[in-house]
């Protein structure tokens, strides 16, 4: 009996350890869920949706999830009814006392930025210790806004003309044409609005970016997104560029497929935003899945956490092509058979 109990406890502690990233507890912040606009989930439905959102890779590697419904606004009920209770719980449990890492996807990037900007003041006012967030891993981050959200809100309000191509793009993304009563967090995702929300946090938490340039929609949405995009978010947003624009990479010296050449990329980034991994083949949803979609390259192969610890990826350069037509490429080792999320998880451990 004692032996069985010890084995059970060992298994429990082993499972808890596996949830950490490099010894740091992981906090998940999911992205926009289009079906919420019609279904308007509450209570356990929100939690169930959050669990399903991360099911492919990160759910079982995390300690805490901040789940929120997409029919609400970031600075409204998302913050008061869903974020704040979780922040209190984490502070009371000392979850981040020795540091923690937030992992966000899509709109979760914007929600996380709002958390970073406000959590210390909120918790101190409640007599609690602020969270010690050492870094965020932002996959397909939408913190710089989403042009499709601008179009959807305009169409919902009757102020935008809608042709067949636009109707198809919005329908593929949202599954519906929205009405004024069900745009929710789309209001916050409009490019100018998103870029003004908690734009300059006092905290210097490094925002590490992981970006794709594929599409789940066979390119149907790309016509409405400037530069390279992942089918939902343009690269100016996912890379963390300081301003909206048409960019073909997160770097000015390496393309999404790893080719080492001069390319149109941002010259500056939002505060403490650092693009790391990129891939031409990964779509908006692929980046948090558990399958290798394409080779991955690095805009930067190493960045420090807030406490000075370093996240580093092993890359190699090689020539591809024949003779004078060959080009030099930079590839993250093992990315041909390892998902982007797994590459990040393994490097962090």
TrEMBL record:
The keyword Signal belongs to this UniProt entry's keyword annotation: yes
InterPro entries the record matches: AB_hydrolase_fold
Signal peptide: 1-19
Keywords of this entry: Signal
UniProt name for this protein: Uncharacterized protein
């Amino acid at each position: 009996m004692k032996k069985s109990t010890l084995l059970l406890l060992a298994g429990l502690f082993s499972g808890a350890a596996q949830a950490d990233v490099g010894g740091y507890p992981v906090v998940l912040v999911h992205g926009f869920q289009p079906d919420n606009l019609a279904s308007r989930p509450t209570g356990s439905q929100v939690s169930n949706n959050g669990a399903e959102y991360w099911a492919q890779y990160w759910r079982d590697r995390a300690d805490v999830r901040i789940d929120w419904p997409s029919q609400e606004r970031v600075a409204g009920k998302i913050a008061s009814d869903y974020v704040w209770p979780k922040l209190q719980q984490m502070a009371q449990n000392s979850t981040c006392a020795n540091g923690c890492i937030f992992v966000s996807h899509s709109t979760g990037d914007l929600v996380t930025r709002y958390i970073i900007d406000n959590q210390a003041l909120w918790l101190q006012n409640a007599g609690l210790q602020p969270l010690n967030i050492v870094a965020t891993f932002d996959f397909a981050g939408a913190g710089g806004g989403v042009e499709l959200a601008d179009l959807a809100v305009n169409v919902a309000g009757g102020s935008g003309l809608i042709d067949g191509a636009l109707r198809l793009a919005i329908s593929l993304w949202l599954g519906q044409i929205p009405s004024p009563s069900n745009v929710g967090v789309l209001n916050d995702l409009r490019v100018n609005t998103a870029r003004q929300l908690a734009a300059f946090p006092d905290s210097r938490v490094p925002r590490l970016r992981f970006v794709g340039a594929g599409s789940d929609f066979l390119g149907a949405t790309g016509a409405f997104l400037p530069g390279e995009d992942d089918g939902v978010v343009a690269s100016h947003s996912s890379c963390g560029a300081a301003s909206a624009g048409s960019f073909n990479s997160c770097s000015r010296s390496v393309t999404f497929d790893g080719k080492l050449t001069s390319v149109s990329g941002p010259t500056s980034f939002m505060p403490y935003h650092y693009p790391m991994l990129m891939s031409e083949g990964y779509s908006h949803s692929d980046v948090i899945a558990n399958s290798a979609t394409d080779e991955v390259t690095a805009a930067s192969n190493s960045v420090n956490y807030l406490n000075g610890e370093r996240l580093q990826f092993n890359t190699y350069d090689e020539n591809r092509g024949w003779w004078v037509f060959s080009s030099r490429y930079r590839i993250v080792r093992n990315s041909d058979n390892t998902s982007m999320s797994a590459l990040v998880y393994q490097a962090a451990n």
